[in-house]
Amino acid sequence: MKAGVIELGSSSTPKTSASRGASILDFILRIVAAIATLGSAIAMGTTNETLPFFTRFIRFRAKYDDLPMFTFFVVANSIVSVYLFLSLALSIFHIIRSKAQVSRIVLIFLDTGMLALLTAAASAAAAIVYLAHTGNTKANWFAICQQFNSFCERISGSLIGSFGGILLFILLILLSCVALSRR
Q1: Pick from 100, 76, 79, 78: which is nearest to 90 by CA?
Q2: Do 179 and 12 form a contact (C-beta atoms < 8 A)?
Q3: Which residues is 61 bridged to in the sheet?
Q4: Intra-chain end-to-end CA distance of the chain, in Å
């Protein structure tokens, strides 16, 4: 090294620390997304309400598995939640080895597939929740949320968690792309 000249490339500490920070943020976002999707699956899967009709022997029941879209929602959120918990191992690997590229690329593809699955499930369930709240008079589908308040509140809250998971997946994919582009 000559006097007054700084050599570049000999030390990459700022780049490594930024990459490690991105890996730690990736780990935290995965934990939050896993909790959101697991919470959504549990909230939807345990939703049911029974209302008496005229007598106590005749009752109306609303349960999540009465509609296939809600069953798809529970299964998809469960799959995504398990995937997120399993992907924490790769996220820890990225914290330890910040320069890993192939595993980041694999995570981007898997995250994108899980994002598509979660979006499909949340959208299908959102359509049914909308019908439950507003109904459709042309098709003679009446709004059931006036009678089944607890049921509708739980399925709506479950959708919020799932759409939060979708936003976190988008952030995870963008974060991984930025981490790869800095290399």
Answers
A1: 100
A2: no
A3: 50
A4: 25
Which residue type is seen at 166? I
Residue 41's nearest CA partner among 111, 153, 121, 113 is 121
Instruction: Concatenate the DSSP letters of all residues of 112-177 into one string.
Output: HHHHHHHHHHHHHHHHHHHHHHH-BGGGTBPP-TTT-HHHHHHHHHHHHHHHHHHHHHHHHHHHHH
pLDDT of the chain, 183 residues: tens digit per residue: 455 544 444 444 556 677 788 889 999 999 999 999 999 999 998 887 666 665 666 656 667 777 889 899 999 999 999 999 999 999 999 888 877 788 889 999 999 999 999 999 999 999 988 988 888 888 878 777 777 777 788 888 999 999 999 999 999 999 989 888 876
Q: How many helices (H) and strands (E) does the chain have?
A: 4, 2
Q: Which residues, including other chains, have CB under 8 Å from residue 56's CB and lie 6 or more apart?
A: none
pTM of the model: 0.82
Tokens coding 56: 């106590």
Name residue, tokens 């981007």.
108
Q: Is 7 helix (H, G, I), strand (E, B) or coil?
A: coil
**141 has which bridge partners?**
136
Contact between 169 and 132 (Cβ < 8 Å): no
| Residue 158 burial by Cβ neighbours in a 10 Å radius (0-12, 13-18, 19+) | buried
